[in-house]
Amino acid sequence: MNKKILFVVTSHDKKGNTGEPTGFYLGEASHPWEVLHEAGYDIDFVSPKGGKAPVDGFTLEDPVNKKFWEDPVYRKKIEHTLRPEDINPADYAAIFYAGGHGAMWDFADNKALAAIAAEIYDHNGIVAAVCHGPAALVNIKLGNGQYLVAGKKINAFTNEEEVAVGLEKVVPFMLESKLIERGGKFEKSALWQPHVTVDQRLITGQNPASAKGVGEAMLAELKK
């Protein structure tokens, strides 16, 4: 059994030209990590630039965040993320993209990460993402030349949620709209409600509240 899973986090630390800091959203990595780590999976972390990943949503009042952050092995991994060129896709049963607004700037156009995800998926692996993580999915094309999301049920941070946080004019594109443009069948729930969508080994979650559910859906799919 292939026990490894690849988590992708952003290297981008600013919200456009606002000067506000961002990064990967800690709970969107820690909650799926807890589910999969406790099930016995070894998880590697990669980012577009490698090295120390910028963190957003940093609160250790969340016990799962605290557990992740204080785990010496995983703290080291998140502070020394791998680079895309370090990755052999054949080593992984699944790839998961954590959110955080930074993902909107450096996930969509990263060809190396897209190629890794396409190879994992084309070899019957799982592709998963939560919140802004699905920004990574907009340009992934499979071996058959089709967009990964085309014709599949999909979910992500919604246009309404982007407006609610006041960043609809700051992000480089509206994620929901772009996924629909690529042929995805977008599903959503009300603002900040957990929503996880599973379709043909593609697993997506709407927002931070959906992160644990994405991990659980990945685990269920991995057990098949």
Helix content: 25-40%
Structural class: alpha/beta
Q: Give the full name of the CATH homologous superfamily.
A: Class I glutamine amidotransferase (GATase) domain
Q: What is the 3D form?
A: globular
Taking the sheet with the most strands, its summary is: 6 strands, mixed
Q: How would you state the average pLDDT, rounded?
A: 97
Order of helices and strands: EEHEEHHEHHEEHHEEEH
The radius of gyration is 16 Å
Q: Count of helical segments? A: 8
List the uncertain runs. Answer: none
Can you characterise this structure?
- This is Type 1 glutamine amidotransferase domain-containing protein.
- InterPro entries: Class_I_gatase-like (IPR029062), DJ-1/PfpI (IPR002818), Prot/Nucl_acid_deglycase (IPR050325).
- Residues 27-213 form the DJ-1/PfpI domain.
- Keywords: Glutamine amidotransferase, Lyase, Stress response, Transferase.
- Belongs to the peptidase C56 family. HSP31-like subfamily.
- This protein is an alpha/beta fold.
- It has a single domain (4-222), classed as Rossmann fold.
- It is built from eight helices and ten strands.
- The protein has helices at residues 26-38, 63-69, 72-79, 103-106, 111-122, 159-164, 175-181, 211-222, and strands at residues 4-8, 24-25, 42-46, 55-56, 94-97, 126-130, 153-154, 185-186, 196-199, 202-205.
- The strands form three sheets. The protein has a six-stranded mixed beta sheet with strand order 3-1-5-6-10-9. It has a two-stranded parallel ribbon with strand order 2-4.
- Strand 9 (196-199) and strand 10 (202-205) form a beta hairpin.
- Helix 1 (26-38) crosses helix 2 (63-69) and helix 1 runs parallel beside helix 8 (211-222).
- The longest helix has 13 residues, at 26-38.
- The radius of gyration is 16 Å and the shape is globular.
- The model has no long low-confidence stretch (mean pLDDT 97).
